[in-house]
Automatic annotation (TrEMBL):
One GO-annotated biological process of the protein: chorismate biosynthetic process
Subunit-level organization: Monomer.
Gene name per UniProt: aroK
Species of the source: Senegalimassilia anaerobia
EC numbers on record: 2.7.1.71
Family: Belongs to the shikimate kinase family.
Name the UniProt record assigns to this protein: Shikimate kinase
Cofactors required: Mg(2+)
Amino acid sequence: MVAGKTSTSRRLARQCGLATIDLDAYIERRERRAINQIFAEQGEQAFRDMETQVLDEFAHKGPMLVSCGGGIVLREENREILKNNGFVVYLQVTAEQAVERVGDVSTRPLFKNLETARQTIAGRLPMYEDVASVSIDTVGKSINVVAQEIQEILEKEGVLCLRQG
Ligand SMILES: Nc1ncnc2c1ncn2[C@@H]1O[C@H](COP(=O)(O)OP(=O)(O)O)[C@@H](O)[C@H]1O
Ligand SMILES: O=C(O)C1=C[C@@H](OP(=O)(O)O)[C@@H](O)[C@H](O)C1
Ligand SMILES: [Mg+2]
């Protein structure tokens, strides 16, 4: 949450000319309601079911940049989909930096305060480490800098090959 996944993938897609999808935005469009509304009306598990379904859908759609919600790693099924189908970039953030960035918390049903952010990050860490092909520390870096760093890694790893000139 608030690591910059949505904004950084948008930037990276633009600078590299990649197809991209943000799973949360896709769910919101499909459901015609906001994530916090889905949580309020049907609960977290209903949202998690939708999340697994759209992850599976896009995992098999050919090469594209998929931006996930931070809770995607909670289900083992999702972790297997990620590991088997993707090159996974884990954007690391501290709770302190997340609180500084967060802005309007009403759109983020699970974001409460510094202490819960700390607990969430610590609790999920082993799951992020399990799925990550590469980890990038985003603290103190702008969206542009993080996007550039990801591009360089993807090129180095042979995941992305951009034509010169
Ligand atoms: N590297 C960054 N530096 C400063 N602000 C950032 C950075 N990445 C994201 N933000 C800001 O933090 C907020 C959350 O970003 P977002 O892309 O929605 O994160 P996520 O999808 O991981 O929850 C947005 O207001 C965004 O502009
Ligand atoms: O961490 C989480 O459990 C969640 C993160 C959100 O996405 P971002 O990580 O893009 O904020 C969104 O999927 C939902 O509110 C649940
Ligand atoms: Mg997001």
